[in-house]
Amino acid sequence: MNEQHHDVVVIGLGGVGSAVFAELSRRGIDVLGIDRFESPHQNGSSHGQSRIFRVAYFEHPDYVPLARRSRELWCALQDRNQQRIFAKTGGAWIGDPDCEIVAGSILASEQHDLEHELLAPDEVRRRWPALNPPDDSVCFFERQSGVLCPENAVEAFMNEGVEAGGTIRRGCKVTRLELDGTGILLETGKDRIHAERVVVAAGSWSSGLIEDDRVKLQATRQLLGWTRARDRDLLKEGRVPIWAFADEPDSFQYGFPICDGFPGPSAPKVARHCDGEPCDPDTVRRSIDAADEAFLLRNLEQHVPAASGPLEHATVCLYTLSADHHFVIDQHPRNAKVVMACGFSGHGFKFCPVLGEAIADLVLEGGTERPIGFLSRERLG
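Structure (tokenized):
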């Protein structure tokens, strides 16, 4: 086997891994980024044309400071790149006043003094004719929200990391990870790699590398679809924000305007946020059947009639769920030279650049000023 030596190895070059790779490279670290696929790719979580960005975080107010910093960094990354990465569209979250996406967003806004509006259904219809909220609903609207393009973002992170001196290995699977004297030994099919520090950011493939009884991860199958819309003009960027309807107890439907400059279908995208079907990331069913289409489109005719229509394209992505659906970012309990960055549970992509900073701090200094303490493994019983 070929022998290599690097200061830090980042395993996984999806959204978070590529952001960590870029940040370490910018700091002058000899860093190697490894991905088992040809990143950017369609096999994990960091693909599918678009991801929601928001600051008023209904999952937990403690995410808000991270979201604020992340937005600054996304805007800066966009300014440095010709490819489009961040579209500032605003976001409308619609449901009963006490539903999670509305009440949680209000709580986060009140705790962190975030600008927002609460809109009645008639005002929603007036501003955005594509949306048709129920008469008994309320809309939480945040202007700071927008759409991120995961493929363009991952490519930008990797390009910046390489330009700063980092090295990338695509199509390379890590088969062994263990202590090697004072450092870490990694093996692939062809190489033995010696590193001072390692970051495991391998998404749904993280469990086999982490081997921590406290950190339980489950991959789940998720669906993304693009419709043959009834009225495309009402769904163009500038005419409608990102939207979400809290329409069911165990899931909510969300969607995106048609954004210029993004790869993939030129059509409105719809999806459902839910736990999803547990799966193995290596054998997950990638085909889409009639039941999948019905699940994606359920209630769309009622809430966004302009987007209603059959699917013209669909794909599968993965959530990697932690036990409580919050991220796991921490040093490994048996080896502080290994940093875990996993369990992003379907809502982690928006934080990639700030997590790049925080994880780089954790690798190099053993701690960070970024407020990530609530994401440590210690909370997992």
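Residues 2-46+151-216+324-379 form a domain with the FAD/NAD(P)-binding domain fold (CATH 3.50.50.60). The chain is about 25% helix and 30% strand.
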